[in-house]
């Protein structure tokens, strides 16, 4: 069975966790439930079948390095849980466009090395899937890389809240070229969004309305530093808010905009890649008697998303095998905050398993 050849743009903390995971889980046994994985084997593919063949960055501290060294370079500050051996993949320079905002300029010095043609690199390396880990607010940059994928004949997984896979325009472009795309905005395994959604559904399923709710997030990685620039936060707030309000609407209910607040709140440097989320739901039970719940979640942000991307990669490969193009509804609705179609998480999980079963490798 051939490898799943992937390319990555944005060699930050999320990329570091993903690449470390390829080493950490390379000997995972098929018949065992492994901590941190939703699927040890997915559709016939193991984590050891995934191979990074190309990588792109703009930061001087990473461009020109072997990927195994670049994932540990500053300003990356996520947990190191695996030491990756030299990969032979050299991180290539790329166009900045709107990828570096006001605050990231403080910690990122843009490389002056020549910028190669990414389409040529993707074709020469045989890359099948591009993973987008660009900073929040990189609208032009993400659209540029989506276009690169179309030109190179490469599928895409959009892990950030720039709306590509969830728009008909881009979905149709990928469908016309028979290329799958999964997006938008990765939903971590057990992060603030999934916890907030599950609690929301718990209340609604038990006959209790969501009167008011908030979710506040703080962290110390470059993602939170970047989001201090409020103008780059628009799509992030929309994505995280929609992810919760979609569950309310699926119950034929609504919530006024002034009664919900979901989004990043502040940058706390000493937290590094640890994210702390605070959630509150105000509701009413029998007799309209008030009830409230408050939750505090502390989680290492980047590894929390890597396990989901591992599954998204393998689902994308299944779609490629079966020539399924456009936005993949089932994987996107389970793995992403802003898919082209929303479901409850239990329904999304069932739909995903049916997608995997239908498109799995045949013995």
Describe this structure in words.
- The protein is of the alpha/beta class and 363 residues long.
- Helices cover 35% and strands 20% of the residues.
- It has helices at residues 13-24, 67-70, 118-125, 139-152, 168-176, 192-205, 222-226, 234-250, 301-321, 329-335, 345-359; strands at 4-9, 41-42, 45-46, 50-57, 91-93, 129-132, 155-158, 180-182, 212-219, 260-267, 274-285, 289-300, 326-327.
- The strands form three sheets. A seven-stranded parallel sheet has the order 5-4-1-6-7-8-13, with helices on both faces. Strands 10-9-11-12 form a four-stranded mixed sheet.
- α6 (192-205) runs parallel beside α8.
Q: Would you summarize the structure shown here?
A:
The protein has 363 residues and is α/β, with parallel strands linked by helices.
Question: What are the defining features of this structure?
Answer:
single chain, 363 residues, alpha/beta, seven-stranded parallel β-sheet, 20% strand, globular
